[in-house]
Amino acid sequence: MLRTQLSEALKEALKSQDKIAVSTLRLILAALKDRDIAVRPERGDDGLDDNEILQLLQKMVKQRDESIVLYEQGKRQDLADRERAEVVIITRFLPKQMAGEELQQAIAGVVEAEKAASLKDMGRVMATLRTQYAGQMDFGKASGIVKGLLG
Predict the structure, then answer these.
(1) What is the reported pLDDT for 98?
(2) Which of 30, 43, 35, 142 is CA-nearest to residue 97?
(3) In this structure, what DSSP letter does residue 96 have?
(4) What total of structural domains would you count in the chain?
(5) Could you give the CA distance from residue 20 to residue 26 in angstroms, rounded to a whole number?
(6) What is the Cα gyration radius of the chain?
(7) What is the tens place of the pLDDT at every residue in 31-87?
(8) Which of 128, 150, 149, 151 is nearest to 139 (CA)?
(9) What is the rounded CA–CA span in Å between residue 149 and residue 133?
(10) What is the mean pLDDT of the chain?
(11) Looking at residue 102, what is its pLDDT?
(12) Which helix (H) or strand (E) holds 105?
């Protein structure tokens, strides 16, 4: 379903002649195709599912956020602004991000459901979080919270 939304968005961007949206959506679809090819030996022609596509999109946003910082340090505001525009386009396809208390409760619920008691259980908790909340939370922040709860 997400794959279809991306293709439809590309068609709309082409019609409206939005150059940044067209290039960003083409980058997303190219990255998606690369990942599909990479997993083909394991899965056949199935490709990535929506959760994996969401993870790919989150990774792309994170890369752009890091680039923005570097461009601003290098006094390249034009490139930082372009990266920001790309982030806006990519985040249209991501679900609302959890934060604050909602994030804490979701993580605590998974820790409790997995009966995690120590840092040895962290991998299992993180795997469950990635499955249940793909695209909905920053897993870098989540891992810090999980460490705090288990450590």
Answers:
(1) 81
(2) 142
(3) P
(4) 2
(5) 10
(6) 18
(7) 999 998 888 888 777 778 888 888 899 899 999 999 999 999 999 999 999 999 999
(8) 128
(9) 18
(10) 88
(11) 86
(12) helix 100-113
Q: Are the CB atoms for 58 and 66 separated by under 8 Å?
A: no
Same domain, 111 and 83: no
pLDDT (mean) for 11-30? 95
Asked if residue 6 lies in contact with residue 29, where contact means CB atoms within 8 angstroms, the answer is yes
At 78, phi and psi to the nearest 5?
Answer: -60, -45
Confidence of residue 105 (pLDDT cuts 50, 70, 90): confident
Q: Indicate whether 53 and 26 sit together in one domain.
A: yes
Under 8 Å between Cβ of 84 and 126: no
Give the C-alpha distances (Å, rounded to integers) separating 66 from 9, 38, 48, 71, 82. Answer: 25, 25, 25, 9, 13
Range of the domain at 75: 2-91
pLDDT at 140: 81
Q: Are residues 63 and 118 in the same domain?
A: no
Residues 6+ apart with CB under 8 A from 68: 80, 83, 84, 87
* Lowest pLDDT segment from 20-24, 52-56, 95-99, 110-114: 95-99
Which CA distances in Å does 39 have to 14, 56, 130?
A: 29, 13, 18
Instruction: Check residue 129 and report its DSSP letter.
Output: H
